[in-house]
């Protein structure tokens, strides 16, 4: 296919990421010409049968549950402090997702620089109590495709994923935005326990020498589990 201008590709990726984080896109799947595949991460923990894949509260050893913190590094990445405006958009997206799940709490947010991927790994979450992990099923939907009225195809799907050692429930929302022969795939991976809610996604760094391309669930889900290991601590510790 013809080479797409870098600016057009950047806008498409940015639109896909914003669509995912805002959780306001229609559902669906579609066959499109995707951009280059990003570096892969091992998602073998999602194989059925193990504690991580079962969604059981293997994190019960935390006693009173988990609490979210903001470490200086997560998943091997250093923390980055963005300007106020992008952070405000992140807060707004977190509020909308929390409202969809019917939960409230104290917000915890952090951004981590991933120069190898050409973007920022974004973490946002809530500390609270009385959450029902099964509420995450509200994010599930029948795949569908729609046009956005500007010539773009928007498709979205939900995939359950392994939670990691801390238990609860977890899943990833994948969004594909296609325009002509160009397509960008982004994912937002979420988890929910009785005391914590978290969301992990990528946001492109337009100043990077490396261009953030596709970030499917197979890329983001393993990172979500690593972020959980870094940001989630036993309550009271």
If you had to describe this structure to a student in words, what would you say it looks like?
The chain has about 240 residues and is an alpha+beta fold. It is built from four helices and eleven strands. The chain has helices at about 5-20, 50-55, 85-100, 215-230, and strands at about 65-70, 75, 75-80, 105-115, 120-125, 145, 155-160, 170-180, 180-190, 195-205, 230-235. The strands form two sheets. It has a nine-stranded antiparallel sheet, sandwiched between helices. It has a two-stranded antiparallel sheet with strand order 1-11. A hairpin with a 4-residue loop joins strand 4 and strand 5 (about 120-125).
Brief characterization of the structure:
The chain is an alpha+beta fold. Helices cover 23% and strands 31% of the residues.
| Major sheet characteristics | 9 strands, antiparallel
Per DSSP, the total helix count is: 4
Which value, in Å, is the CA radius of gyration? 17 Å
Order of helices and strands: HHEEEHEEEEEEEHE
The 3D shape can be described as: globular
Short key terms for the protein model shown above:
single chain, 237 residues, alpha+beta, 9-stranded antiparallel beta sheet, two-stranded antiparallel sheet, 4 helices, 11 strands, 23% helix, 31% strand, globular, disordered N terminus
Architecture blueprint of SSEs:
Layout: H1 6-22, H2 51-54, E1 66-68, E2 73-74, E3 77-80, H3 84-101, E4 106-114, E5 119-127, E6 144-147, E7 153-160, E8 169-179, E9 182-192, E10 196-204, H4 217-231, E11 232-234
Antiparallel strand pairs: 1-11, 2-3, 3-4, 4-5, 5-10, 6-7, 7-8, 8-9, 9-10
């Amino acid at each position: 296919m013809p080479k797409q201008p870098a600016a057009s590709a950047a806008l498409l990726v940015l639109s896909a990421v914003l669509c995912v984080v805002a959780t306001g896109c229609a559902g669906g799947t579609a066959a499109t010409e995707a951009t280059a595949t990003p570096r892969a991460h091992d998602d073998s923990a999602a194989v059925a049968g193990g504690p991580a894949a079962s969604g059981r509260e293997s994190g019960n050893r935390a006693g009173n549950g988990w609490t979210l913190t903001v470490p200086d590094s997560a998943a091997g990445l250093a923390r980055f402090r963005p300007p106020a405006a992008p952070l405000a958009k992140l807060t707004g997206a977190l509020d909308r997702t929390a409202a969809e799940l019917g939960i409230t709490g104290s917000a915890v947010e952090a951004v981590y620089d991933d120069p190898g991927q050409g973007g920022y790994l974004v973490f946002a979450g809530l500390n609270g109590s009385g959450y029902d992990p099964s509420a995450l099923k509200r994010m599930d939907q029948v795949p569908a495709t729609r046009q956005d009225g500007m010539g773009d195809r928007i498709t979205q799907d939900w995939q359950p994923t392994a939670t990691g050692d801390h238990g609860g429930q977890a899943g990833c929302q994948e969004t594909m935005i296609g325009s002509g022969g160009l397509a960008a795939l982004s994912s937002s991976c979420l988890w929910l326990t009785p005391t914590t809610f978290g969301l992990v996604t990528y946001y492109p760094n337009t100043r990077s020498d490396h261009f953030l391309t596709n970030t499917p669930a197979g890329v983001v889900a393993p990172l979500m589990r690593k972020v959980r290991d870094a940001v989630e601590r036993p309550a009271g510790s």
